């Protein structure tokens, strides 16, 4: 008679909500993300790392959280982010004025541990100047020309990556 072995499994939001402690060696599987964690009998789910093995779907454990998106800004509207990956948390984009935009969070940007990577369209002579504001709730992005004139409509599927190191 064949036996069926089922792993403890649930949606990622339910694992996060219940935050159980898995027994030593007990695997827990996220149905929607296809990732799993291995229990140690002491650590709550939220503090366990994802198991990635040699070729696991989670890949290597990185020393940072990241937000990767494509930013587009038109007319006098707030920038719109097409999020490619987000392990940091909620980030909201607003337009402060011509060529000046603000990314705000709930204190997710750690001072001296946050980096920003952003590139503009090389066919344009305009610059893109990101900066981090303390205490860690804001990032400013400014777009403009070499003579420091701030201009809108420079961001057109412009890649941005924000990394917050552990």
What does the model show?
- By secondary structure, this protein is mostly beta strands.
- It folds into two domains: 1-59, no CATH class; 64-165.
- The chain contains one helix and eleven strands.
- The strands form three sheets. Strands 5-4-11-8 form a four-stranded antiparallel β-sheet, with no helix packed on it. A four-stranded antiparallel β-sheet has the order 6-7-10-9, with no helix packed on it. A three-stranded mixed β-sheet has the order 1-2-3.
- It is elongated, with a radius of gyration of 21 Å.
- It starts with 7 loop residues before the first strand and ends with a strand.
Keywords:
1 helix, 166 residues, 2 domains, four-stranded antiparallel β-sheet, mainly beta, 11 strands
User: Rg, please?
Assistant: 21 Å
Strand count, sense and barrel status of the largest sheet are: 4 strands, antiparallel
Could you spell the SSE succession in H and E letters? EHEEEEEEEEEE
Our count of domains comes out at 2
The SS-based structural class is mainly beta
**Strand order across the biggest sheet?**
5-4-11-8
- Summarize model confidence as the mean pLDDT: 83
Number of helices: 1
Q: How large a portion of the residues is in β-strands, by DSSP E?
A: 35-45%
Number of strands: 11
Distance between the termini: 50 Å
Q: Helical residue percent?
A: under 10%
Shape: elongated
Question: Which spans of ≥5 residues are poorly predicted at pLDDT below 50?
Answer: none
